[in-house]
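In the previous chapter we treated chains in isolation. Here, by contrast, the input contains two separate entities that must be folded as one system, with a combined length of 811 residues.
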Amino acid sequence: MGMDRTISNFIRALRNAEVRVSTAETLDAISAVELVGYSDKAHLKRSLSMVLPKTADEKETFDACFDNFFRFQDVRGDASADANPEQGEQEGEESGEGGDGEGGGAGGDPQMQNKGKKKSKSKAKQNNLYEEEEEADLGPGEIAEANSHLGKLLMSDSRVELAQSMAEAGEATNVREIQIFTQKGLYARRIMDHMGLPDLNREISDLRVDSRVPARRLGQQLKQRRDFLREQVRDYVEQQFMLNADVSGKRLREEMLRSVKLSNVEHRNFRLIQEMVYKMAKKLSTLHSRRRKVFKRGQLNVPKTLRNNMSYDGAIFDLYWKSVKVDRPKVFAICDVSGSVANYARFMLMFLYSMDEVMPKVRSFAFSSDLAEVTELFNRNKIEDAIAKTLHDYSGGSTDYGQALLDFKKLCLDDVDNRTTIIILGDARNNHGEAHAEVLRELYDRSKRVIWLNPEAKLAWNTGDSEMRKYGAYSHQVEECNSLMHLERVVSNLLRQTN
Amino acid sequence: MGDIEKLAESVASLQASFEAHRYICSDEIATAVFLAYQLRKPILIEGPPGVGKTELAKTAAEMFALPLIRLQCYEGLDESKAIYEWKYGKQLLYTQVLKEALNEVLGDAKGFRESVQQLHNFGDIFFSEEFLEPRPLMKALKEEDGCILLIDEIDKADHEFESLLLEILSDYQLSIPEIGTIKAAAEPPLVFLTSNNTREISDALKRRCLHLYIPFPDLDIEQRIIGARVPEIPPALQKQLVAFIHELRNLDLKKMPAISETIDWARTLVLLHAEALDPNMVKDTLNVILKFQEDIDNVKSEVPALTAKVSG
């Protein structure tokens, strides 16, 4: 039970670090831990790394997470391990329980456990917490009743309630939102305050100057327990920090980046965006790679036909065909890479090429004034390098959509057929040049779809030198596209329609 | 069976036993087999080609003295090739034969209802195990004393096929509509799946398996592998050769040389009576380790420097 708790806390940390762990895998992890135990950490790590993370990326995250998590567990375990190994193990587990109040320890007899725990603790710490102030040894004997709420709680020896109260305080002070390391002290203090530390402090200082021995005895006890509690709270915050920090920050940033205009993305966020693009592309890939159709043509499936016609006395009524795989969409992407739209082109290319599993036939073209095919560049280089090179090589010059369309026609009009989807990304601002919309019309007639993605807000279309009206007439679909969210929608639709 | 249990008792004993079967494995690999056996879970093995994924299953079969049932995956593989197939020819033949004897079958049945009843009792026979042709997956379930089931290159099969595997992987059973559920014998098979990562395996399948990634081995392990596989190799050559391969893996190549290539190369050089790496001999035998002309051309100019480096 306690063992499960450590492991389930670890899994929570993993999930926070974006390793997907299912319930079934959690159960596997528990059986694996039962099998290998906690004693050999390298062995434990190897074992869990086969049960929990299932991709190379996840394994990397797992390694970091494991080292982090179990280093912390170790420190906690060691503090008491030398006093009593058995107890030590239990304590190690219990350090993890803070998160859920109801969990406090493995049922049984909390009092007993509590005493054992305190004993081992004080032994390990040489009792210095209250010896350094050289208090008079008041000896055992009658002890006064605590008055403050927290004091009562501390004296009641109820770990469960104490843990619960700590968790409640944690909840109330939003400890989950802890972001950076230096906030730990702050949160620990807030939690203590919320649990009623000021009252307790007042009570303690009152008690210490009290003339009655039982009261002073209580004061000592409370002080000792308060210090112990402080340590527990610190551990609790530490745990919460590990579980929640960084991740929530990242999630927030991701949430924000999804809808922010791509041209406004700062350079330092490129990496994160890239990760997100991959993630979104991966999601779309798995969503769409499954869809297949059975065509009513192809090769006859003889066994299946015979088998299914047996009920007709061997006479063949129904024919069964070997299913034919559906064509992957054939996509031509034409990107304006001039200054104003370069960033959009960057992310769209990134998106398209991250999906090579479901869209292996992407050909891409870049232009600002003249147009050239950059497919080869992407086939030979890593996506990021190819994009950087494309932007570098083609982004000079003033935008000329007419020329770009003419170039495209010359280059590969013959390759455009009724299975081709042409995506054009650009603001259609032609610098008052010749639009050559008739070329687009030709493409419109020949291809399956022409999709025009315009990064400008709809209101700005058709103003100034924008030729959106002319081009829009010869596009099957015109979309405003300037954030990852838009991009995801467009690509998803693309796959849906081609399948 | 007792032997197997003893073998699979600890990671160390597994490792030693693998080594005795000339398969040098890292702690990770041994742990994976250990867990797979103890937890009764399939292992999904991923890694670059030629690092010994398939070999692991084969060696495990040899080591546990269990039969190896292998299912090679390819595009279009379906249940009739992987699980079972009705012997439809036999079924047809029997139908024809029975047509003549229909009267006898129906006997003195009176009325339509009774005739159908008679036929019904009879008809079920056509879909019994008698007419069933078991394919690898079902064969594996029927092995009384357990077996090693190797599902090779699962990434080559279609997505649908993965779903087909889910039942056998999680519950060691198969459902056949006409017959019912076939459960594994007392000892379920130990399942190895391999993938070269040409595409992502679905999460559902991954969830049901332990996941083992076999990378290219480190210097020490690869030395030992060569020692085990090509025992006649001179020690100096063995050292240089493995170091050379590791240098190659640091270069930007279209296809990295894998362990299988290292072994082939070691055998080649032993045949040529080489005692140590010599630049000319390396150049002549590059085609054993590099499979693209482009790579060979690129590496050729580097050979003297690399040879000097690993001999030094």
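Strands of chain A lie at 330-336, 361-367, 371-373, 420-425, 449-454, 477-480. Chain A has three domains: 2-102+146-247, 274-291+327-498, 294-325. Compare these points with the single-chain example from earlier in the chapter.
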